[in-house]
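Q: Got a minute? One more chain.
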Amino acid sequence: MNCYLGVDIGTTNLKAAVFTVEGEMLAFSSAPNINHHPRPDYGEFDMEEIWAGLCKCIREVVDLVGAERIKGVGVSSMAESGVPLDADGNVLYPMIAWYDNRTEPQMEELGRNLGRREIYQITGQNLGPKFGLCKMMWIRENHPEALEQMAHWLSTEDYIIYRLSGEFATDYTMAGRTMAFDVTKLSWSEKMLSQAGVSPEVMPRAYPGGAKVGEVHEKAAGETGLLPGTAVVTGGHDHCCAAVGINIFEDGAVLDSMGTAETLMIATDQLMLNDLSFEKSYTVYPHCGKRLYRVMAPGSGPGVVIDWIFRNLGADLEGKGAQNGTSRYTEMERVIGEKSGRGLWFYPMLRGDLKNAFAGATFRGVRDFHDRGDLIAAAFNGLIYESKQNMDTMHEVFGESFDRCRVVGGVSKSDYIMQKKADIFKNRMEVPINHESACFGAALLAAIGVGELSFDDMGRFYHCDRAFEPRSEEDYEQDYETYLRNRAAVLALYEEE
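A: Always. Here it is, folded:
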């Protein structure tokens, strides 16, 4: 039976997984993705480290399955991060991480020059510092020699496609997250790129997800263990690949992707760039399939917050889990016990907020009788309240109800969090049987790119592993309203910064 490789380059981890054409995962490998911080407020990636780590993961799964069975590879990745290359493919400046806010002045310059509403109408993106265009502008101002030598600008997925095949290609979602792509014309916007003094010729050709763009060349074959000639296929933004893996094309389904960053996402055949979607800061960009467009709500960073919780409030829980043969989430639930976190509030802006990039996470109402169980429970409540804001807005924007959230990401392993999320959302929460949804979606897109599958086949690949229904006796509505009422006051604390 033919197999397909899905790789995912995330902020925290590099992953590779092999699936059969029937959707069974045969092999999986992961490695940490090293985040460098040359300054406390900077985040960068070394592309050789990413490539070496990914090659190691790919070799491990290829060794288990056999290279001859793998017919294609699809690439999923974090978005917004980008890197300039010279004409020989050499990196001219490290890849600036998506969460790095050094580009705040460039964002403000874009807003002054073009206006937020016009930028949204062209790109489907709400103006922010994370996008690739802002990074190009920052490099032009701070390292002009790099931009002068730049022959190619590649986002994360694009760089991996280049290292595998030698081709300069991207998919619509990666292109969209540069904030230099015209989502109405499906082509690079000269108007946007001119703000960085960049020509469209340096940008890779954009394709829908699931397009074969090249084949693994000899050098990459030697580094990864894949056979030369293996098809290389566009995947996309990790959230969008996960959305394919959970069959986002089904009516009433919402992707809730809870990784380093969280987002809610639906698929639609309509390009929605109206005043309400703009006002609510919704991202709209194309990807693949009959419902070409993805609408993505702004999100928090649950993975970042949860890592912070375990590092600072539960450093012992990983070890206890190993001793007891359980997970850190199980040990966390024991610490929380019967504590609800109510009456104590946590606002989880560890990496800023959409309206204020310099906002910080904040506990409110801490008293001397609170212990770490209270703090952890309140922290998870805060994360879920943030996400519920987006679900409520989604109902408002679309004027319809979405009756089930399909949750992917490491947080979905916790029954405690999933049940609390169902209670607060008042929605059914489903956790798919395949937990590596971004890799799975990328592998499915590889099979589509080769021609063995079509988008009409996607319905048969989604299977629910665990489901959580809202409990009628748990009512968080008043707490949620209090959270929202106080949120603006908390953000105001950081306005002068």
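A: DSSP finds 18 helices and 23 strands in the chain.
Q: Perfect, thanks.
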